[in-house]
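URGENT: need a sanity check before tomorrow's submission.

F., can you look over the Hexose transporter 1 record below? I want to be sure the sequence and structure line up before it goes out.
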Amino acid sequence: MAGGVAINIQDNHVFDDAPTEGTRTYAIIVCIFASLGGLFFGYDQGVTGGVLVMDSFVNDWCVGWHEQTYKDCTAKSSSLPNRWIDYTLWYNMTYNIGCIFGALLGGWVADKFGRRVTIFNAGLLFCIGTSWVCFCPAGAHASLLAARVIQGMGVGNSSFSLPIFGAEMAPKELRGFLSGFMQMTIVTGLLLANIVNLIVEDDKHGWRVLQQATGINPMFSYGGLIFKDVVGDGILSVLILSIVNFVSTIPAMRWVDTFGRRQLLLIGAVGMVLGHVVSGISFTAGCDGNTDDSGCSKGAGYIIIIGTAFFIFNFAISWGPVCWIYPAEIFPLNVRAKAVSLSTMANWVMGTCMTWVVKLFPSLNINGVFFLFCGTCICSGVFVYFLCPETKGILLEDIEALFHKGDGYKKNASPKYVEVETPVQAA
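C-alpha coordinates as predicted:
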Protein backbone atom coordinates (compact mmCIF):
# COMPACT_ATOMS: atom_id res chain seq x y z
CA MET A 1 0.00 0.00 0.00
CA ALA A 2 1.25 3.51 -0.63
CA GLY A 3 0.98 6.84 1.12
CA GLY A 4 1.14 10.39 -0.24
CA VAL A 5 3.86 12.84 0.72
CA ALA A 6 4.02 16.54 -0.30
CA ILE A 7 7.44 17.36 -1.79
CA ASN A 8 8.80 20.90 -2.22
CA ILE A 9 9.95 21.42 -5.82
CA GLN A 10 12.88 23.84 -6.02
CA ASP A 11 13.72 23.81 -9.77
CA ASN A 12 11.90 25.46 -12.64
CA HIS A 13 9.19 22.80 -12.96
CA VAL A 14 5.71 23.89 -11.90
CA PHE A 15 3.35 21.55 -10.03
CA ASP A 16 -0.05 22.06 -8.52
CA ASP A 17 -0.17 22.16 -4.73
CA ALA A 18 -1.23 18.81 -3.33
CA PRO A 19 -3.09 18.59 0.01
CA THR A 20 -1.05 16.90 2.72
CA GLU A 21 -2.55 13.72 4.10
CA GLY A 22 -3.28 12.97 7.72
CA THR A 23 -6.09 13.07 10.22
CA ARG A 24 -7.56 16.29 8.84
CA THR A 25 -10.92 15.91 10.55
CA TYR A 26 -9.32 15.43 13.95
CA ALA A 27 -6.99 18.40 13.42
CA ILE A 28 -9.90 20.63 12.35
CA ILE A 29 -12.03 19.68 15.38
CA VAL A 30 -9.15 20.19 17.83
CA CYS A 31 -8.20 23.58 16.35
CA ILE A 32 -11.76 24.90 16.33
CA PHE A 33 -12.46 23.71 19.87
CA ALA A 34 -9.20 25.20 21.19
CA SER A 35 -10.00 28.51 19.49
CA LEU A 36 -13.14 28.87 21.60
CA GLY A 37 -10.83 30.44 24.18
CA GLY A 38 -11.05 33.57 22.04
CA LEU A 39 -14.65 34.01 23.22
CA PHE A 40 -13.64 35.36 26.63
CA PHE A 41 -11.00 37.56 24.98
CA GLY A 42 -13.61 39.17 22.72
CA TYR A 43 -16.33 39.21 25.35
CA ASP A 44 -14.23 41.14 27.83
CA GLN A 45 -13.17 43.65 25.19
CA GLY A 46 -16.76 44.12 24.06
CA VAL A 47 -18.07 44.48 27.59
CA THR A 48 -15.70 47.33 28.43
CA GLY A 49 -17.05 49.73 25.81
CA GLY A 50 -20.60 49.41 27.14
CA VAL A 51 -19.78 49.12 30.83
CA LEU A 52 -18.01 52.49 31.00
CA VAL A 53 -21.25 54.30 30.08
CA MET A 54 -23.61 51.99 32.00
CA ASP A 55 -25.45 53.57 34.94
CA SER A 56 -24.83 50.58 37.22
CA PHE A 57 -21.06 50.82 36.73
CA VAL A 58 -21.05 54.62 37.06
CA ASN A 59 -23.09 54.44 40.29
CA ASP A 60 -20.84 51.76 41.81
CA TRP A 61 -17.49 53.28 40.91
CA CYS A 62 -17.85 57.00 40.13
CA VAL A 63 -20.80 58.53 42.00
CA GLY A 64 -19.72 59.50 45.53
CA TRP A 65 -16.03 58.89 44.84
CA HIS A 66 -14.14 62.10 45.68
CA GLU A 67 -17.55 63.79 46.03
CA GLN A 68 -18.43 63.27 42.36
CA THR A 69 -22.13 63.47 41.48
CA TYR A 70 -24.12 61.48 38.94
CA LYS A 71 -24.21 64.59 36.75
CA ASP A 72 -20.42 64.86 36.89
CA CYS A 73 -19.98 61.19 35.99
CA THR A 74 -22.33 61.28 32.99
CA ALA A 75 -21.16 64.57 31.45
CA LYS A 76 -19.81 64.90 27.92
CA SER A 77 -16.49 63.09 27.49
CA SER A 78 -14.61 66.40 27.33
CA SER A 79 -16.14 67.47 30.68
CA LEU A 80 -15.76 64.28 32.74
CA PRO A 81 -13.89 64.58 36.07
CA ASN A 82 -10.15 64.01 35.67
CA ARG A 83 -10.10 61.37 38.41
CA TRP A 84 -12.79 59.37 36.63
CA ILE A 85 -11.03 59.65 33.26
CA ASP A 86 -7.83 58.40 34.91
CA TYR A 87 -9.65 55.50 36.55
CA THR A 88 -11.32 54.34 33.32
CA LEU A 89 -7.90 54.57 31.69
CA TRP A 90 -6.38 52.34 34.39
CA TYR A 91 -9.37 49.99 34.16
CA ASN A 92 -8.23 49.27 30.60
CA MET A 93 -4.51 49.72 31.29
CA THR A 94 -4.27 47.09 34.04
CA TYR A 95 -6.02 44.57 31.80
CA ASN A 96 -3.49 45.20 29.04
CA ILE A 97 -0.57 45.01 31.49
CA GLY A 98 -1.87 41.59 32.53
CA CYS A 99 -2.04 40.59 28.86
CA ILE A 100 1.62 41.58 28.40
CA PHE A 101 2.79 39.41 31.30
CA GLY A 102 0.48 36.56 30.27
CA ALA A 103 1.91 36.54 26.75
CA LEU A 104 5.51 36.82 28.01
CA LEU A 105 5.21 33.96 30.51
CA GLY A 106 3.28 31.88 27.99
CA GLY A 107 6.38 31.28 25.88
CA TRP A 108 8.28 29.79 28.81
CA VAL A 109 5.32 27.63 29.89
CA ALA A 110 4.72 26.40 26.33
CA ASP A 111 8.35 25.31 25.89
CA LYS A 112 8.60 23.65 29.31
CA PHE A 113 5.15 22.07 29.71
CA GLY A 114 3.59 22.18 26.23
CA ARG A 115 0.83 24.04 24.40
CA ARG A 116 -2.07 22.26 26.12
CA VAL A 117 -0.93 23.29 29.60
CA THR A 118 -0.63 26.90 28.40
CA ILE A 119 -4.21 26.88 27.06
CA PHE A 120 -5.48 25.35 30.33
CA ASN A 121 -3.66 28.00 32.39
CA ALA A 122 -5.23 30.73 30.26
CA GLY A 123 -8.74 29.55 31.07
CA LEU A 124 -7.94 29.11 34.77
CA LEU A 125 -6.46 32.61 35.14
CA PHE A 126 -9.38 34.21 33.36
CA CYS A 127 -11.93 32.37 35.54
CA ILE A 128 -10.13 33.53 38.69
CA GLY A 129 -9.92 37.13 37.49
CA THR A 130 -13.54 37.24 36.33
CA SER A 131 -14.85 35.79 39.60
CA TRP A 132 -12.83 38.39 41.49
CA VAL A 133 -14.29 41.21 39.36
CA CYS A 134 -17.80 39.86 39.79
CA PHE A 135 -17.69 39.74 43.59
CA CYS A 136 -15.59 42.86 44.10
CA PRO A 137 -17.52 45.23 46.43
CA ALA A 138 -18.55 48.61 45.04
CA GLY A 139 -15.97 51.30 45.74
CA ALA A 140 -13.01 48.91 46.14
CA HIS A 141 -11.16 50.58 43.30
CA ALA A 142 -7.72 49.04 43.87
CA SER A 143 -9.15 45.54 44.20
CA LEU A 144 -11.00 45.87 40.89
CA LEU A 145 -7.82 46.90 39.10
CA ALA A 146 -5.93 43.93 40.59
CA ALA A 147 -8.65 41.61 39.28
CA ARG A 148 -8.29 43.15 35.84
CA VAL A 149 -4.57 42.23 35.84
CA ILE A 150 -5.44 38.56 36.49
CA GLN A 151 -8.07 38.63 33.74
CA GLY A 152 -5.51 40.10 31.36
CA MET A 153 -2.95 37.41 32.17
CA GLY A 154 -5.47 34.77 31.08
CA VAL A 155 -6.23 36.59 27.84
CA GLY A 156 -2.55 37.25 27.10
CA ASN A 157 -1.81 33.57 27.65
CA SER A 158 -4.58 32.47 25.29
CA SER A 159 -3.81 35.05 22.59
CA PHE A 160 -0.29 33.59 22.40
CA SER A 161 -1.08 29.89 22.67
CA LEU A 162 -4.19 29.48 20.49
CA PRO A 163 -2.76 30.76 17.16
CA ILE A 164 0.49 28.81 17.54
CA PHE A 165 -1.44 25.63 18.45
CA GLY A 166 -3.64 26.09 15.37
CA ALA A 167 -0.67 26.76 13.07
CA GLU A 168 1.13 23.61 14.22
CA MET A 169 -1.93 21.33 14.10
CA ALA A 170 -3.49 22.49 10.82
CA PRO A 171 -2.82 21.16 7.29
CA LYS A 172 -1.01 23.82 5.23
CA GLU A 173 -3.97 24.45 2.91
CA LEU A 174 -6.23 25.19 5.92
CA ARG A 175 -3.66 26.80 8.19
CA GLY A 176 -4.93 30.34 7.65
CA PHE A 177 -8.50 29.33 8.47
CA LEU A 178 -7.70 27.21 11.52
CA SER A 179 -4.91 29.37 12.95
CA GLY A 180 -7.04 32.48 12.45
CA PHE A 181 -10.27 30.95 13.74
CA MET A 182 -9.52 32.52 17.11
CA GLN A 183 -10.36 35.87 15.51
CA MET A 184 -13.81 34.50 14.62
CA THR A 185 -14.43 33.53 18.23
CA ILE A 186 -13.10 36.91 19.41
CA VAL A 187 -15.58 38.85 17.28
CA THR A 188 -18.35 36.45 18.35
CA GLY A 189 -17.52 37.32 21.95
CA LEU A 190 -17.56 41.03 21.07
CA LEU A 191 -20.99 40.70 19.48
CA LEU A 192 -22.43 38.70 22.39
CA ALA A 193 -21.05 41.23 24.87
CA ASN A 194 -22.73 44.15 23.15
CA ILE A 195 -26.04 42.30 22.80
CA VAL A 196 -25.99 41.61 26.54
CA ASN A 197 -24.89 45.22 27.15
CA LEU A 198 -28.14 46.35 25.54
CA ILE A 199 -30.26 43.83 27.48
CA VAL A 200 -28.91 44.65 30.96
CA GLU A 201 -28.25 48.35 30.37
CA ASP A 202 -30.80 49.44 32.99
CA ASP A 203 -30.20 46.67 35.55
CA LYS A 204 -28.45 47.91 38.68
CA HIS A 205 -26.15 44.87 38.73
CA GLY A 206 -25.86 44.73 34.94
CA TRP A 207 -22.13 45.38 34.69
CA ARG A 208 -21.41 42.50 37.10
CA VAL A 209 -23.45 40.08 35.00
CA LEU A 210 -21.37 41.05 32.01
CA GLN A 211 -18.05 40.53 33.76
CA GLN A 212 -19.03 37.13 35.05
CA ALA A 213 -19.99 35.90 31.60
CA THR A 214 -17.25 37.49 30.07
CA GLY A 215 -7.45 50.00 18.54
CA ILE A 216 -9.44 48.54 16.97
CA ASN A 217 -9.24 48.35 20.74
CA PRO A 218 -9.97 52.05 21.37
CA MET A 219 -13.02 51.83 19.08
CA PHE A 220 -14.56 49.19 21.29
CA SER A 221 -13.05 50.32 24.61
CA TYR A 222 -13.96 54.01 24.24
CA GLY A 223 -16.52 53.85 21.43
CA GLY A 224 -19.35 54.01 23.95
CA LEU A 225 -18.04 57.33 25.30
CA ILE A 226 -17.48 58.83 21.84
CA PHE A 227 -20.77 57.80 20.23
CA LYS A 228 -22.80 58.66 23.33
CA ASP A 229 -21.80 62.26 22.67
CA VAL A 230 -22.33 62.36 18.91
CA VAL A 231 -25.51 60.29 18.40
CA GLY A 232 -26.86 59.95 21.94
CA ASP A 233 -26.63 56.15 22.33
CA GLY A 234 -23.17 54.72 22.92
CA ILE A 235 -24.21 51.13 23.67
CA LEU A 236 -26.36 50.73 20.53
CA SER A 237 -23.66 52.31 18.36
CA VAL A 238 -20.99 49.91 19.62
CA LEU A 239 -23.41 46.99 19.07
CA ILE A 240 -23.80 48.04 15.41
CA LEU A 241 -20.02 48.15 15.01
CA SER A 242 -19.72 44.72 16.66
CA ILE A 243 -22.20 43.28 14.15
CA VAL A 244 -20.12 44.72 11.29
CA ASN A 245 -17.00 43.19 12.85
CA PHE A 246 -18.66 39.77 13.23
CA VAL A 247 -20.18 39.61 9.74
CA SER A 248 -16.97 40.82 8.07
CA THR A 249 -14.83 38.21 9.82
CA ILE A 250 -16.83 35.31 8.35
CA PRO A 251 -15.57 35.66 4.74
CA ALA A 252 -12.10 36.56 6.03
CA MET A 253 -11.71 33.01 7.34
CA ARG A 254 -11.86 31.76 3.75
CA TRP A 255 -10.17 34.69 2.02
CA VAL A 256 -7.00 34.33 4.08
CA ASP A 257 -6.32 30.95 2.39
CA THR A 258 -7.70 32.06 -1.00
CA PHE A 259 -6.11 35.47 -1.56
CA GLY A 260 -3.25 35.14 0.89
CA ARG A 261 -2.04 37.04 3.95
CA ARG A 262 -0.04 39.76 2.19
CA GLN A 263 -2.74 40.84 -0.25
CA LEU A 264 -5.38 41.07 2.48
CA LEU A 265 -3.08 43.14 4.69
CA LEU A 266 -2.40 45.64 1.89
CA ILE A 267 -6.06 45.96 0.89
CA GLY A 268 -7.08 46.27 4.53
CA ALA A 269 -4.52 49.01 5.20
CA VAL A 270 -5.91 51.13 2.34
CA GLY A 271 -9.49 50.60 3.51
CA MET A 272 -8.67 51.46 7.12
CA VAL A 273 -7.00 54.70 6.04
CA LEU A 274 -10.12 55.69 4.07
CA GLY A 275 -12.39 54.88 7.03
CA HIS A 276 -10.35 57.02 9.41
CA VAL A 277 -10.20 59.89 6.90
CA VAL A 278 -14.01 59.90 6.53
CA SER A 279 -14.50 59.85 10.32
CA GLY A 280 -11.86 62.53 10.92
CA ILE A 281 -13.26 64.90 8.28
CA SER A 282 -16.82 64.38 9.57
CA PHE A 283 -15.72 65.19 13.11
CA THR A 284 -13.93 68.30 11.89
CA ALA A 285 -16.87 69.56 9.83
CA GLY A 286 -19.79 68.49 12.01
CA CYS A 287 -18.42 68.73 15.54
CA ASP A 288 -15.67 71.34 15.28
CA GLY A 289 -13.30 68.52 16.14
CA ASN A 290 -14.68 67.88 19.62
CA THR A 291 -17.77 66.87 21.56
CA ASP A 292 -18.19 69.76 23.95
CA ASP A 293 -21.55 71.22 24.93
CA SER A 294 -21.90 73.10 21.63
CA GLY A 295 -23.09 69.75 20.28
CA CYS A 296 -22.48 67.77 17.12
CA SER A 297 -24.62 67.52 14.01
CA LYS A 298 -26.60 64.25 14.06
CA GLY A 299 -25.85 63.85 10.34
CA ALA A 300 -22.13 64.12 11.03
CA GLY A 301 -22.52 61.59 13.83
CA TYR A 302 -24.07 59.03 11.48
CA ILE A 303 -21.35 59.61 8.87
CA ILE A 304 -18.76 59.04 11.60
CA ILE A 305 -20.39 55.70 12.43
CA ILE A 306 -20.39 54.76 8.72
CA GLY A 307 -16.70 55.70 8.41
CA THR A 308 -15.86 53.73 11.54
CA ALA A 309 -17.87 50.75 10.28
CA PHE A 310 -15.90 50.86 7.00
CA PHE A 311 -12.66 50.91 8.99
CA ILE A 312 -13.83 47.92 11.05
CA PHE A 313 -14.88 46.00 7.91
CA ASN A 314 -11.40 46.40 6.44
CA PHE A 315 -9.75 45.51 9.74
CA ALA A 316 -11.92 42.40 10.14
CA ILE A 317 -11.10 40.99 6.69
CA SER A 318 -7.37 41.55 7.03
CA TRP A 319 -5.44 42.74 10.06
CA GLY A 320 -7.86 41.13 12.53
CA PRO A 321 -7.17 37.48 11.65
CA VAL A 322 -3.83 37.78 9.80
CA CYS A 323 -1.96 39.39 12.70
CA TRP A 324 -2.61 36.25 14.76
CA ILE A 325 -1.83 33.88 11.88
CA TYR A 326 1.38 35.40 10.47
CA PRO A 327 3.61 35.38 13.60
CA ALA A 328 2.60 31.79 14.36
CA GLU A 329 3.80 30.73 10.88
CA ILE A 330 7.06 32.49 10.19
CA PHE A 331 9.37 31.36 13.01
CA PRO A 332 11.38 28.10 13.02
CA LEU A 333 10.30 25.41 15.48
CA ASN A 334 13.28 25.80 17.83
CA VAL A 335 12.34 29.41 18.66
CA ARG A 336 8.65 29.48 17.70
CA ALA A 337 7.12 29.50 21.19
CA LYS A 338 9.40 32.23 22.53
CA ALA A 339 9.21 34.31 19.34
CA VAL A 340 5.41 34.19 19.14
CA SER A 341 5.29 34.96 22.86
CA LEU A 342 7.35 38.13 22.25
CA SER A 343 5.30 39.15 19.20
CA THR A 344 2.07 38.72 21.17
CA MET A 345 3.57 40.70 24.03
CA ALA A 346 4.43 43.48 21.55
CA ASN A 347 0.81 43.41 20.39
CA TRP A 348 -0.38 43.96 23.96
CA VAL A 349 2.26 46.64 24.63
CA MET A 350 0.78 48.58 21.73
CA GLY A 351 -2.70 47.82 23.09
CA THR A 352 -1.60 49.32 26.41
CA CYS A 353 -0.38 52.43 24.61
CA MET A 354 -3.73 52.67 22.84
CA THR A 355 -5.57 52.90 26.17
CA TRP A 356 -3.92 56.31 26.57
CA VAL A 357 -5.86 57.55 23.55
CA VAL A 358 -8.48 58.98 25.93
CA LYS A 359 -5.77 61.34 27.20
CA LEU A 360 -5.32 62.70 23.67
CA PHE A 361 -8.93 63.87 23.36
CA PRO A 362 -8.35 67.30 24.98
CA SER A 363 -5.11 68.08 23.09
CA LEU A 364 -5.72 66.56 19.63
CA ASN A 365 -9.52 66.52 19.78
CA ILE A 366 -11.24 63.36 18.60
CA ASN A 367 -10.79 64.22 14.92
CA GLY A 368 -7.03 64.51 15.51
CA VAL A 369 -7.02 61.02 17.01
CA PHE A 370 -8.69 59.65 13.86
CA PHE A 371 -6.03 61.32 11.70
CA LEU A 372 -3.30 59.93 13.99
CA PHE A 373 -4.65 56.39 13.46
CA CYS A 374 -4.81 57.12 9.74
CA GLY A 375 -1.06 57.77 9.81
CA THR A 376 -0.31 54.56 11.71
CA CYS A 377 -2.34 52.56 9.16
CA ILE A 378 -0.29 54.07 6.33
CA CYS A 379 2.95 53.09 8.11
CA SER A 380 1.60 49.56 8.63
CA GLY A 381 0.78 49.17 4.94
CA VAL A 382 4.25 50.38 3.92
CA PHE A 383 5.85 47.87 6.31
CA VAL A 384 3.88 44.98 4.80
CA TYR A 385 4.64 46.04 1.22
CA PHE A 386 8.40 46.07 1.70
CA LEU A 387 9.03 43.43 4.38
CA CYS A 388 6.29 40.77 4.50
CA PRO A 389 6.39 37.86 1.99
CA GLU A 390 3.37 35.68 1.24
CA THR A 391 3.05 32.48 3.34
CA LYS A 392 -0.22 31.06 1.96
CA GLY A 393 -0.07 27.33 1.23
CA ILE A 394 3.54 26.89 2.32
CA LEU A 395 4.65 24.23 4.79
CA LEU A 396 5.91 25.66 8.08
CA GLU A 397 9.30 24.07 7.46
CA ASP A 398 9.72 26.04 4.18
CA ILE A 399 8.61 29.49 5.35
CA GLU A 400 11.95 30.43 6.92
CA ALA A 401 13.57 30.38 3.46
CA LEU A 402 11.27 33.21 2.31
CA PHE A 403 13.14 35.59 4.61
CA HIS A 404 16.59 34.74 3.20
CA LYS A 405 16.95 37.75 0.92
CA GLY A 406 20.23 36.50 -0.49
CA ASP A 407 18.56 33.38 -1.92
CA GLY A 408 16.40 35.02 -4.53
CA TYR A 409 14.00 36.60 -2.05
CA LYS A 410 10.67 37.63 -3.58
CA LYS A 411 7.73 39.04 -1.68
CA ASN A 412 5.25 36.87 -3.59
CA ALA A 413 7.45 33.81 -4.14
CA SER A 414 6.00 30.47 -3.03
CA PRO A 415 7.49 26.99 -3.29
CA LYS A 416 5.49 24.42 -5.27
CA TYR A 417 4.57 20.96 -4.03
CA VAL A 418 3.82 17.68 -5.76
CA GLU A 419 2.41 14.51 -4.24
CA VAL A 420 4.61 11.43 -4.66
CA GLU A 421 3.87 7.82 -3.80
CA THR A 422 6.00 6.19 -1.09
CA PRO A 423 5.87 2.55 0.01
CA VAL A 424 4.22 1.93 3.37
CA GLN A 425 4.40 -1.48 4.99
CA ALA A 426 0.94 -3.01 5.44
CA ALA A 427 -0.17 -3.70 8.97
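My own read: The longest helix spans residues 82-113. The radius of gyration is 23 Å. If you see anything odd, call me.
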